[in-house]
Amino acid sequence: MKYLGKKVVVTGGTHGMGRAVVDRLIEEGAEVVLTGRTIEKAEGIKAHAIASNAADLDDIAALKTEVAQRLHDIDLLFINVGFSTLTPFDTTTEADYDRTFDVNTKGAFFTAQQLAPLIREGGSIVFTTSVATALGSPGLSVYAGAKAAVRAFARGLAAELAPRNVRVNVVSPGFIDTPSMGVYGVPEEVVQQFKEQGDRITPLKRHGSMDEVAAAVLFLAFDATFTTGAELAVDGGLGQGISA
Ligand SMILES: NC(=O)c1ccc[n+]([C@@H]2O[C@H](COP(=O)([O-])OP(=O)(O)OC[C@H]3O[C@@H](n4cnc5c(N)ncnc54)[C@H](OP(=O)(O)O)[C@@H]3O)[C@@H](O)[C@H]2O)c1
């Protein structure tokens, strides 16, 4: 029971890689609060499931109150909510832009701001960004910018929280086999093509698993005790400038 006694908040923990982190934590004895827009998919998980829209500052403030009541203080805040849409630059609307930044960027920032006071000394924050920040990928420009901002936030927060011995790090996934592949609003066959494209262009010639991301998140959270402000890529080499 490696995480017995640990208390953790996972935003975007109902499915995908956030859920993989939740499952590992629960198996190893942690107490977990997880969020999603809807929590039906979390039924049966032995966690506190709270419906909370990451783009809504009132929801984030309410989440802080709930977490304080249920857990009191926390060891890990995993800020994982995010999505992309594969929208080309020339057809991106202001609404597309705002939605992408509201969920991926503003939500991440204010979730950290609201919940950081609950993190115990020695605890940590982990954000999820993306290999898209290191690539020029068609349809992913706004998403890449939104996640690049989160990567920059992590450095600033690492500086501001270091006096409390709270570490702040980033996991940067490449193509990971989650139900959505992180892409919303496109047909299933497009998600499938996206996944196959990932397998072709990734140096390790495959996509990653949710468990491979979860292992990196938990390493940053609990084992990497002299690491802060850092980014750990889980991308099969895709964002690392490796020639095929
Ligand atoms: N899969 C990949 O290949 C990949 C690659 C690079 C980066 N990423 C990033 O990794 C993270 C997780 O991706 P994933 O593939 O695991 O995605 P996923 O399966 O779609 O899971 C996303 C999680 O976030 C929640 N969520 C989405 N929008 C939300 C909102 N507005 N408010 C609250 N919760 C919300 C979802 O729950 P509900 O549906 O209930 O709201 C779910 O729990 C994201 O930040 C994504 O951008 C993914």
TrEMBL record:
Which PANTHER family does this chain map to? DIHYDROANTICAPSIN 7-DEHYDROGENASE (PTHR43477)
InterPro entries for this protein: KR_dom, NAD(P)-bd_dom_sf, Sc_DH/Rdtase_CS, SDR_DHRS6-like, SDR_fam
What lineage does the source organism belong to?
Bacteria, Bacillati, Actinomycetota, Actinomycetes, Pseudonocardiales
Question: The organism sits in which domain of life?
Answer: Bacteria
Q: Which organism is it from?
A: Lentzea flava
Keyword terms of this UniProt record: Oxidoreductase
UniProt similarity note: Belongs to the short-chain dehydrogenases/reductases (SDR) family.
Q: What CDD domains does the record point to?
A: SDR_c (cd05233)
Write the protein's name. Answer: Short-chain dehydrogenase
Q: Which Gene3D superfamilies match?
A: NAD(P)-binding Rossmann-like Domain (3.40.50.720)
Q: Ketoreductase domain location, by residue?
A: 6-174
